[in-house]
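tokens incoming
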């Protein structure tokens, strides 16, 4: 299944709760989107999230339903390592 990087910008600091994350995960499950991990900027105004999904559209539907932005969605192809080797994104 393809892997996507989603960039999100928040107008105010992000402060997720366990309950809020559970709601987002429930929506993701319904859209067949799997959240792998996220990186949060130091000012808590931007996140970079990795997802597994069939399509960009599925990620955008899940984000819209969850009420969170999906400012940029990019399908990833491979990992480039410091030794110049490339590995599949899995």
């Amino acid at each position: 299944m393809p892997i996507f990087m989603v960039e999100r910008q928040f107008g105010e600091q992000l402060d997720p709760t366990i309950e809020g994350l559970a709601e987002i995960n429930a929506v993701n499950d319904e859209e067949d989107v799997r959240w792998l991990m996220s990186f949060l900027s130091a000012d808590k105004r931007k996140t970079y999230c990795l997802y597994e999904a069939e399509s960009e559209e599925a990620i955008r539907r899940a984000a819209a339903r969850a009420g969170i932005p999906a400012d940029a969605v990019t399908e990833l192809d491979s990992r480039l390592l410091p030794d110049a080797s490339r590995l599949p994104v899995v």
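note: The beta strands are 3-9, 34-40, 46-52, 72-76, 78-80, 86-88.
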